[in-house]
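Please study the protein below:
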Amino acid sequence: MSGPAKTRVAILISGRGSNMVSLIEAARAPDFPAEIVLVLSNRPEAAGLARAAEAGIATQAIDHRAYPDRDGFDAALDAELRAAKVDLVCLAGFMRIFTPGFVEGWAGRMLNIHPSLLPLFKGTHTHARALEAGVRLHGCTVHYVVPELDAGPIVAQAAVPVRAGDDPDSLADRVIVQEHRLYPAALALVAGGKVRLEGDRVIFDAEAAQADGALLSL
């Protein structure tokens, strides 16, 4: 007998897709509740597309430069995702800001990983800004996507200490290790129905609440 149907996931990338690789590898486990059915990039030259193809996953490039505006690109992206019968979208270094209409169309079904402990350091250059601010803890966050940049309800976070002598590169190197652990764990919680959105809050079931405590202490 076959098990329950797995959540169909598309990963959106713009570059090498290191977090994409961590999700693909995690999804190979028989008991992982999601399957990666599509990797899509806004840049045809993105190195991650070849890595996904090597893993046997369908890939698609939609060059944003071919569209006169964000609405046109987002409409093409939406059509590809729906044609692939995608249930959940994971952003993994996808360097595009969506139109509010696209985000609303995938509300509660789109995740992102951000290299800071949100709500601190939204946007770019997070590691340099963390060092400039003098924080002692830095890290990464998996959150639902909402129209406001890097502001959606938080699913999970992992922290790393900021060490004396750190520069943005050394700090980034430690954070990315945690990103590669956190994102698959968070996707498993969402795809497995262990967390749900109620309004703008993430609600955990009892099992997931225990797992989230472990995520926070990675």
Q: What stands out?
A: The radius of gyration is 17 Å.
